[in-house]
Protein 1
Amino acid sequence: MSPRLIAFDLDDTLAPSKSPLEPAMVDALIRLLDVVDVCIISGGHFGQFSAQVLDRLGDGASARFERLHLMPTCGTQYLRFVGGEWREQYAETLTDDEKSRALTSVEGHARALGYWETQTWGPVLEDRGSQVTFSALGQAAPVVAKAAWDPSGEKKSVLRDAVAVDLPDLEVRSGGSTSIDITRLGVDKAYGMRKLAEATGVPLSDMLFVGDRLDPAGNDYPVKVLGVACVAVEGWEATVDVIDELVEAKAA
């Protein structure tokens, strides 16, 4: 397969959770952008994309940014580099009522289930415009702490199911290692990939998706169900190997 566009999850796929790209990944991503269009689609907001990816790629990569597609908050937003700046192409913004009900429900159930932690790093509840996110330990929690909070994923599943009952008109799903994401109904990474195909003219059959949560409970799974060719990875180091293979195949 020689995909025309390669899409990646961000946390634990391109970088450690909520952390900047490692030097080896910066090099790999720049080499990939030299030969093919790349999309990053993740539950994080644009500020996280900037801190984790764009700031690490640096000004020298600006010419390559035209081949980079950014889809924060699971594809509910889409940004392209136009005229020397990142410009929003669309945003599926939640209404004030939807945000209020989402925030109230997820906090209430987290407290009732005993998941409301006293030691946190950064905001636990976030209004990201097109997505409401609950992060049990806060957005800036250390990777080790997040990995230890819910290693089996059971807490997230229980919380997700409880909140979903309150919000039948919204999409409630497990996000990162300690997070729950809430968006418009039917809006997930599969939605984002379909919108990407419409915007770029690249059919889904000519795309490849790389992610760490392609299991049925993961937030990358909808892309697999959509029928997009997928590669499952465990950590950014494995993704570097995938990128090396893709770059070599393009050069062949």
Note: The two ends are 12 Å apart (CA to CA).
Protein 2
Amino acid sequence: MAKIDIIEKYFPNLTAVQKNQFAQLQDLYAEWNEKVNVISRKDIENLYERHVLHSLSIAKVIEFKPGTEILDVGTGGGFPGIPLAILFPKVKFHLVDSIAKKINVVNEIAKTIGLTNIVAEQMRAEKVDGEYDFVVSRAVTRIDVLYRWVRSKVAHQQGHDLKNGIICLKGGDLTEEFSKLKKKNKLIEMSEIFEEEFFETKKVAYVPVTN
């Protein structure tokens, strides 16, 4: 299986532009990873499964409508923001991370593949100004901490059937972590979405912030 085939397997309706953008990611991340370690060395060969498809699991939970505004907290090398921005070209993404060199990689990759719907900035989540329909993240911190950081940044006006809130990618046993949140939440097993072994312990966690 060619590396991008795993993306087309679950997202068969990609445009030629999207296929081309996804196809460029392997070489770009391999090249940048030599300069700035944004992905673990052993994972670079599994980029499409462990980073790109993993990020796109959010798109199996919700289809963002055009004009939706998304904040990606602790984006690192651009996950889940860059894959989602490719998949949803009419959605606006704001990617933030506290480490400048990682944001530089995000900006360079976005520019190279022609992504025009993202803004990436070196910034702590608590300092972000503005309102967003959804906040996404990938294992950046405990859910109760993330909720505290971003709850005031989630817009009250609804545009989706799923209420505005936090959608984050998590792994392992989350019972203790989510018991401290004391907020309504939903955990979706990625093994119900993707058949690859990597996803057996992975979850998409959704926490509505607005009533």
Note: The two ends are 44 Å apart (CA to CA).
Protein 3
Amino acid sequence: MTRLILLLSLLLLAACGGAGGADETPATGGELTVDQVTANLSLPTDTGAVYMRITNGSAADDALIDAAVPGCGTVELHEIIMDGDVMSMSQVEGNRIPIPAGQTVMLERGGLHVMCIGKTGEFTVGQSVPVTLTFETAGEMEVTAEVIEPGEMSEGMGDN
């Protein structure tokens, strides 16, 4: 009976893990930590983006392979590439963003990001939006993104 109570207590503690909003406790999945999660979704267009910092504290490589955002028709993993004076955006190869062991990967404006295509929901500045991230090894992780003013996010957000 004691073992059952201990097991149930551990499961309850695991289920109560926090989401990783911009100013909240980071979400963790195994040795992955996700924080600084923000969303540029408030413009009156049918697209938007989600940004975050993902840190792999393990000794094994992982990869972000999918994401889901309620109110987004399609979600893809994208990157922006500068070729001289020309900027282009496209889905990352294989819809896979590597998260190497012991490293931090920034998803930020002007670089890698989670792209919302065909918005079906209304998003307002200050709103919290759940984001489900799927990693190759760590599996699914729930985080919370704060919807920000479109001009509020600057490149190099990890520098603050």
Note: Residues 105 and 159 are 13 Å apart (CA to CA).
